[in-house]
UniProtKB/TrEMBL annotation:
InterPro entries: Cadherin-domain_protein (IPR050971), Cadherin-like_dom (IPR002126), Cadherin-like_sf (IPR015919), Cadherin_CS (IPR020894). SMART domains: CA (SM00112). The keyword Aminoacyl-tRNA synthetase does not apply. Pfam families: Cadherin. Keywords: Calcium, Cell adhesion, Membrane, Repeat, Signal, Transmembrane, Transmembrane helix. This is Uncharacterized protein. It is found in: Membrane. The lineage of its organism: Eukaryota, Metazoa, Ecdysozoa, Arthropoda, Hexapoda. PANTHER family: CADHERIN DOMAIN-CONTAINING PROTEIN (PTHR24025:SF22), DESMOGLEIN FAMILY MEMBER (PTHR24025).
């Protein structure tokens, strides 16, 4: 139990009436984070503090002598932030498909955006991103502050030389704490002549009763790849 501070009161009486006991004021007896030692006035931490949950406390402390006379002092405690959280990626994996030869990408438009959050406040909650693996040849780049990933040289995307890429992205907060787990970005390079699948209708509407069981099939959607007008 760590001691934060100490309150003190003196009594001009002599003998037993000069002995002072300290207690938390009315309504604060159940305060979880702090307690006061009745004989010394030392205010001690009794539960974990978290700046992000609550950053200030204010409560009265009563000093009472053996004759029943008392006085009250207000105590205010300011909790200062420490860098106690690491960045966490969500989602941890990303998938994207790019057409070879740069047909579906450019050096100025992001192909995917990774995101990590940090539960700390202020500068400790800021996040910077970095590609730490999988970027041989510098084909990709990442914006350190936004997490946007770009293709540096779209014309070098090729299904023949390298049809897939896997990038590992790390996140570091303003206090230099690094994410425990990197994000993974899986990039597939597809033939520029390949056509995307097309749904058989643009909109689907289904009705379902509120009391159906889990895994009940609500409806079906269907898409197919159509080549050469077939």
């Amino acid at each position: 139990m760590n001691i934060n501070l100490k309150v003190s009161a003196t009594d001009p009486d002599c003998g037993v009436n000069a002995v002072v006991n300290y207690t938390l004021g009315d309504g604060f007896e159940q305060l979880r984070e702090f307690k006061v030692r009745s004989d010394t006035g030392e205010i001690c931490i009794s539960s974990t503090l978290d700046f992000e949950t609550r950053n200030a406390f204010e409560f009265p402390v009563i000093a009472t002598d053996r004759g029943g006379l008392s006085t009250t002092a207000m105590v205010k405690i300011q909790v200062t932030d420490v860098n106690d959280n690491r960045p966490v990626f969500y989602p941890p994996e990303y998938n994207v498909s790019l057409r070879d030869g740069g047909a579906s990408s450019s050096a100025t438009s992001p192909v995917v955006v990774v995101s990590a959050t940090d539960a700390d406040s202020g500068k400790f909650g800021s996040v910077n991103y970095r590609i730490v693996a999988g970027n041989e040849g510098g084909l990709f780049r990442i914006d350190r502050t936004t997490g946007e990933i770009f293709v540096n040289r779209p014309h070098q995307l090729s299904t023949r030389s390298q049809p897939s890429h896997r990038l590992n992205i790390s996140a570091t907060d303003g206090g230099n704490l690094k994410s425990l787990k990197d994000a993974e970005v899986f990039i597939s390079v597809i033939d520029s002549t390949q056509k995307p699948p097309i749904f058989d209708q643009a909109r689907y509407v289904f009705a379902v009763m509120e009391n159906v069981k889990k895994d009940f099939v609500v409806g079906h959607v269907k898409a197919a790849v159509i080549n050469n007008g077939e």
